[in-house]
Amino acid sequence: MYNIAILGASGYTGAELIRLIAGHSSMQIKALGGNSKAGQKMGDVFPHLRHLDLPDLVTADEINFAEIDLCFCALPHKTSQEVISKLPADLKIVDLSADFRLRDPEEYEKWYGNPHAALEQQKEAVYGLTEFYREEIKAARLVAGTGCNAATGQFALRPLIEADLIDLDDIILDLKCAVSGAGRALKENLLHAELSEGYHAYAVGGTHRHLGEFDQEFSVLAGRPVKVQFTPHLIPANRGILATVYVKGDPQAIHAAFEKAYSSEPFIEVVPFGQTPSTRHIRGSNFCHIGVSGDRIEGRAIVTAALDNLTKGSSGQALQNANLMLGIEETEGLMMAPLFP
Amino acid sequence: MYNIAILGASGYTGAELIRLIAGHSSMQIKALGGNSKAGQKMGDVFPHLRHLDLPDLVTADEINFAEIDLCFCALPHKTSQEVISKLPADLKIVDLSADFRLRDPEEYEKWYGNPHAALEQQKEAVYGLTEFYREEIKAARLVAGTGCNAATGQFALRPLIEADLIDLDDIILDLKCAVSGAGRALKENLLHAELSEGYHAYAVGGTHRHLGEFDQEFSVLAGRPVKVQFTPHLIPANRGILATVYVKGDPQAIHAAFEKAYSSEPFIEVVPFGQTPSTRHIRGSNFCHIGVSGDRIEGRAIVTAALDNLTKGSSGQALQNANLMLGIEETEGLMMAPLFP
Amino acid sequence: MYNIAILGASGYTGAELIRLIAGHSSMQIKALGGNSKAGQKMGDVFPHLRHLDLPDLVTADEINFAEIDLCFCALPHKTSQEVISKLPADLKIVDLSADFRLRDPEEYEKWYGNPHAALEQQKEAVYGLTEFYREEIKAARLVAGTGCNAATGQFALRPLIEADLIDLDDIILDLKCAVSGAGRALKENLLHAELSEGYHAYAVGGTHRHLGEFDQEFSVLAGRPVKVQFTPHLIPANRGILATVYVKGDPQAIHAAFEKAYSSEPFIEVVPFGQTPSTRHIRGSNFCHIGVSGDRIEGRAIVTAALDNLTKGSSGQALQNANLMLGIEETEGLMMAPLFP
Amino acid sequence: MYNIAILGASGYTGAELIRLIAGHSSMQIKALGGNSKAGQKMGDVFPHLRHLDLPDLVTADEINFAEIDLCFCALPHKTSQEVISKLPADLKIVDLSADFRLRDPEEYEKWYGNPHAALEQQKEAVYGLTEFYREEIKAARLVAGTGCNAATGQFALRPLIEADLIDLDDIILDLKCAVSGAGRALKENLLHAELSEGYHAYAVGGTHRHLGEFDQEFSVLAGRPVKVQFTPHLIPANRGILATVYVKGDPQAIHAAFEKAYSSEPFIEVVPFGQTPSTRHIRGSNFCHIGVSGDRIEGRAIVTAALDNLTKGSSGQALQNANLMLGIEETEGLMMAPLFP
Questions:
Q1: CATH number at residue B252
Q2: What is the structure's pLDDT at A9?
Q3: Is B148 a catalytic residue?
Q4: Same domain, C155 and C84
């Protein structure tokens, strides 16, 4: 049994990690960090976990990391780098924040507004999009989880860019995001009375921070700068991201490229040509469903991709990476079917 | 007082017409047609209308159209043309179905799959997008209400096409539609257990019938064929359409064009540059909110437009047209504020 | 035209007052108070009101009450009494808070935890349950709006207590309340991700403050102390209160008592015996629907009552009272049909 | 590995069984019956199950029951008895319908309106409320799953009746039920546009069929006839039942009785005195949370119980029983944590 610590256990991604690890055959939760709620029982913070025998929340300082085999950091951006810079240098870490996703410190500062405070750790961090960085992740000490929007967009585009199937200068990602991606923050627009029964675009025009990840990854893949258009929308639902991606290329070739790229992937399902996935069919699971349709205008294709932002987009992906880092079967603890209805 | 009949009063657009006319100062409802529920009281079919003194539902045959000043047809597509072809030739009619929207009978047959059964009436029908066909509507006997998606897209694009501000070959409409647009039909995917908490694209790739309206209207405006890409998505909410429109053109010029085009329109609100409207802020009202943002990629703009599919997208628009046809103030019965939260 | 001021215009009941008054034929909004958002435009605080020509938000101090005919106070409890104690002594006021509902200052302190700070005003305050205090309200200077739960329960019980039809020692009110009743406060349990898709009881066991109103009113009616059991539940919806009231008495006699008591009430609809009202059929309106059913156990009846907490339960009731205080037709501005779906 | 068949696999409880069995270590699905959708792939009927390697749907006739170790019948009421009467007489069966819950055929006919068509099988059927019929279930061939409402009410009342702690003539069950309990039937009131954002009572006054189960079970327990009042309400959520039970008795003694009765139960969690469970904290799981509060009126208590109607209320309970019937660990495949948010 591997001993696991989770920092930031009082947020949604922390709770999701606990949900998943509770069904894992070779991990046990040894410590739960949550500074603002230190001293509380998890069953009080998250009553849906009350049946589990979990350690109480403590501050990060109170954790004896010598007995921890792997630590998940589900802390807010910026806090994460400060905390991780002080953790033991040989501790295996999966970070769920944005802090170690961008390899170029200047890009980090451009998108996040502050100089990076853990440059040393940043250098060794491996980008955590499992399906495309599997070998690096197996050997990594510190893995930086991909952003939930960035993961969805990359699943829908990487095989196409790699196979040179689309016009790189005309890529539009229209994303529909559920509200849990915004976390447990107390904001007026996240109240039920404000959010339910309506929807809107936000961070329009190329201002969303996950663009930093798209730029970095797609440009490496293409061997030249690639800039996509990306507009997220907030939808009245709790879990799920649906990406509708408009590209110029041959739809059938695109569908074939997905089938080839993902044929042996346990969590990526390519649906038959012309069908469209729904977020309701991946809810609570680690699966990502991808569909391709042609348009009546020749040479255009619509790619749709759906995943659960808290699972495949965050905590599930993190556990998948942790499995690889510890030499466990990659799918362990992650094969639960989606919850529908 | 003008005497009003509504055919198809047991559907959502019929009920919405009643809601609006109940607050209208110079219309009174004289007859309510609903073949499948003929004989029933409206308060039993729609308990939210039980406080109103309404006639019982009857079959269309039972209505004495000689005493009717204007008839709304809120019938299903195809049924509408059959019924209207048999109504008195001088009866003022506002049709909410798709049957008289396309001027070319071949286009109608292409999109709807059957030959048109009321070609004579089709010839005199006026397209009911009030803001752009005001004078024709005033003089019309038969007005064909614009489709809810088609209305949203046209509000977001007509001034730009007319002012020649955008690339006509690269227009993408990504629409997010609430479920009441699908009507009261008993379909598995419209059940609460199936629809809530998830969302997906449908009619992908240029197959949605409202494309016939876009093609017709934009090509006339541009003076040459225009084909847009249009992907609707079903969102877990009851009312609202949000269009996110991706165009190539100068964002500031586009915003200025909207402000100019809609400056004296009572129901179209152009929000400040960079802001984005939300469907929750127009719910239950006849307003349409339009926003424009630039992208980080120069020469690209994102237009967002929000309206209530049952009001401005259908029954509100129909009442606005009926006001014009009867010589009543255009805004009468339509100035109620949205319901929020 | 009467000049109206609203204090607390940046909350939900304030916004609802504006929505209603926007359609009122003889009121105009002259001043909007909102200390924390003073200086802002209403269209920025509530974009659904952006089409209206409204004064900007100001602090209460900035309002010239000499030109105000009636002032609505939609402030939080406790704040309201402090503000009202400093307003001109001849200003007509409709208060929506709990501050002036209880006639006995000791009862007030018992339920609200602090000594009352405006005892003088409290003495003259009239309880604002319009249907039962109509004459007093017409003559009042200061009217204290009934709590939304307290109003629902009283509509479902007053005629029964008055006609001595039920066992006074065995009354159970099980209420299902939508979330807007909790206001715009930033609390974790009001977030969409926490509230939607689940429901629970709160303030169980006789601790909810609206019990003070039930005790006061029912005891006066009965001529002896009456204590009811009252359990509110938070339901994932934005508007609506449904009371299920369990009483011991003859169901048919109870139904007849309601029909008699409410026969000439414009906003109270008694549905046929055995039918049950739904909150979805009164949403956004000032109506209250009441139903009565018998049980298989003889001598027991179930009364169900539905109203919109923001309208009939709060701002609609307030406007109804203001109409009476100003000598306007009681129903003016309040006859809009519910919004369904 | 035990070979499992599921009849009625195209409904919600069928799909839920597949979700659960997919994570079960010693069961494999050998056959899926679904007459109306025979010939279809499960991934087409329920896309959320598309990652699983499942047999296609067949008619019941096509299944070779000789190779089946246990058959779940998730068929509609009445159909179930007809089908089961024709299955091999030695086949282990867990029935999820209402057909074998009532031991007295006259009671069955009274509540369900038709004479029972499988009286022989009915005689041997064991009532499937696991926590109270464990030994009988272990030895049973045919187990009749408890109704979801009936299970919730019994968890909240059996220990109190057994310990003689409450007034048997004054028990009120006010239930709040999510929509999936109504199944996948195409009914107007189950449409998203009709159901969401509103709630109402139904089957008021002692007409709900689950009363047959309450009567049967409580009367046996008490040794004399017991009739409860039971009012279900339809809530806009997909999963969950919340029972609010009003009883006369000593609250602390009641809480103690629950703690004692359920101390070793793996799926029943008694929360601390005065706390109230929420359906959102048991969603998608096999847990039932129970709380007790006192009232301000002495000698009255409020019991609240929450479970997921599709899991603990139906398919999870069925799997729990199947585990016992096959000699497998009772909790196998059922310990997944709830999905929150």
A1: 3.30.360.10
A2: 97
A3: yes
A4: no
